[in-house]
Amino acid sequence: MATLRPQGHGPNRCASKKDTFLFDRRRLLLLAARGAVLAGVPAVSQAVTTPGRAGLGSISPGRTSEATADADTPNATLNLKAFGATGDGQTIDSPAINRAIEAAAAAGGGTVYFPAGTYASYSIRLKSHVCLYLDQGATIVAAATPLEGTTSGYDAAEPQGDWEPYQDYGHNHWHNSLIWGEGIHDFSILGPGLIWGKGLSRGHSSDKDLPDPTTRGAGNKAIALKNCYNVTLRDFCILKGGWFGILATGVDNLTIDNLKIDTDRDGMDLDCCRNVRVSNCSVNSPYDDGICPKSSFALGYARPTENLTITNCFVTGGYEIGSLLDGSWRLMPDSFLPRATGRIKFGTESNGGFRNITVSNCVFEHSRGLALESVDGALCEDITFVGIAMRGIVNAPLFLRLGERMRGPKDAKVGTLKRILISNVTSYDALQLPSILSGVPGHPIEDVKISDVYLHQVGGGDAGMARVQPPEREKEYPEPTMFGAMPATGFFVRHVRNLEMSNVEIAAEQPDQRPAFALVDVEGADLFRVRVPRPSVAPAFSLKQVANFRVFGSQFVPDKSFQQVDEQVF
Question: Is 0.85 surpassed by the pTM of this model?
Fold first, then answer.
């Protein structure tokens, strides 16, 4: 073999840093290819790629040959078969996958190519400047947890600090996952293939066929990322992702695009992340939330999730797992549908807060409604929801909750929920719970504008429900069902300051004896052009301890204005 040496500019010139880097890169790649041959594995070529950061546009998976890798080419594509992977669905291929990732990283970066096949795996460890590309027909499947006493299995859950009790077990650990990365940057997972968390624990004590998540060698997440930046996840599918399909904690500059997730718990959790773009994703998660931004204490300090956009996404909890991916769209049984989850929810873990958030052009079907929760001291500010279409919502179409569960450090204070804009929202066939905006005494939700909203409810509330005074339950886990039956058809608003509604219509399928709007302890409510169910014997409004109230310009609701009212129904 010819000696590789850096090319200088003359016999007496020293090699540049770039030349030295290329020399090391060539040697590493050639050694990797030679090692594969010595091991009896065909040295399938790495496809030649264009220079630049590893990404979808820089690879050519189809261009392979029997030659060794072109070590002169930056960002080469390393075929897993050259590192001993079988893709037979039986052999544990994670050692080969990790060898390929290490080789790409050592060479300065590149793409690890998964050709069609089924790659049974334990933990896959991501590295900076490395792309995993899952080709059509390629599946990474989470292997079953090995028997007690064996040495194989998923990487051990890393130790956690004194703050572990502030979050559930799944939020506090990342290494015990099918695919994980910590403290790395500039990497991606791309391609139309599948990640199947078949052997992952869901973290439910009721699971009979899967291990407890704390079992030695068990894994409980499909993809887990901690303290990373410049990350792209695009085009692949996740089936049964375990506790989380994607858990991203402290990840900045994150792009998640065109994923299809069909899973048995959360689709994706974006925890303490900054500068995140989620777009064009479809998530079916009957038993838990679909897209779930959080701001927990899992990093050991409170860090907000901020500068986040979620757009053009579909979330549902109404279909059997797997039927989104195979296109059969089999509905869950009627007995299950009222319990479906599958929504976009901010919280429940909410220590750091949510700031500068936009959710736009998203569709909900057979799921719970949109939820924004601050119950652990989070400062939730400057948040916009626009262009949301919902059908078959199983509880409140909109749920804004400021509470004081305070699961976190003892010195934390109750958070805020302010400057919230909600517009262009339609909901059809929601169950009896109205939309709920509820702070707690002394800590109101503030500065909320709701406009161009149509809420169609099933109705059927009776006079007894109209007289209900919902309990406060300040310290309980937040869910729209936490208050029980509610005394309103369209909106229940309590402990709120500065509320503006315009062009809001409430419709009911069945006659409902509850008022369309019930306001309790509200300071500054301005409503313009509202419509209530017709015909109806129920009042439009119920007001208790309300100040600076006005409704005007509505066709079937008389103009009213109150500076202060203890109790009024009209």
Answer: yes
